[in-house]
């Protein structure tokens, strides 16, 4: 014989006027406002490519100074250092510095 399981239909504790338990039908409450979008506002597709392109350009161009200048400065230093290193490790660089070339 299987023991029967007692199932409580409500949450334990005091009764709440505002809440319901899982599975209970939703009770209409006062003071709750629902907002909806107009049908033409829900159609995001017609101009989304044009909107994204222009909005991207507007945002990136406003911030470009903050990443173009540091990138350009870093790239300039990097290319200068690569050329200088290549020259210093070349035969002409060794002769110019007075060091013997191996």
UniProtKB/TrEMBL annotation:
Assembly notes: Component of the ubiquinol-cytochrome c oxidoreductase (cytochrome b-c1 complex, complex III, CIII), a multisubunit enzyme composed of 3 respiratory subunits cytochrome b, cytochrome c1 and Rieske protein, 2 core protein subunits, and additional low-molecular weight protein subunits. The complex exists as an obligatory dimer and forms supercomplexes (SCs) in the inner mitochondrial membrane with cytochrome c oxidase (complex IV, CIV).
Transmembrane segments: 64-81
UniProt source species: Lentinula boryana
Highest taxon of the lineage: Eukaryota
Pfam families associated with the record: UcrQ
Function: Component of the ubiquinol-cytochrome c oxidoreductase, a multisubunit transmembrane complex that is part of the mitochondrial electron transport chain which drives oxidative phosphorylation. The complex plays an important role in the uptake of multiple carbon sources present in different host niches.
Gene3D superfamilies: Cytochrome b-c1 complex subunit 8 (1.20.5.210)
Compartment annotation: Mitochondrion inner membrane
Keywords of the record: Electron transport, Membrane, Mitochondrion, Mitochondrion inner membrane, Respiratory chain, Transmembrane, Transmembrane helix, Transport
Similarity remark: Belongs to the UQCRQ/QCR8 family.
Matches recorded under SUPFAM superfamilies: Ubiquinone-binding protein QP-C of cytochrome bc1 complex (Ubiquinol-cytochrome c reductase) (SSF81508)
Membrane topology of this protein: Single-pass membrane protein
InterPro entries (alphabetical): Cyt_bc1_su8, Cyt_bc1_su8_sf
Protein name: Cytochrome b-c1 complex subunit 8
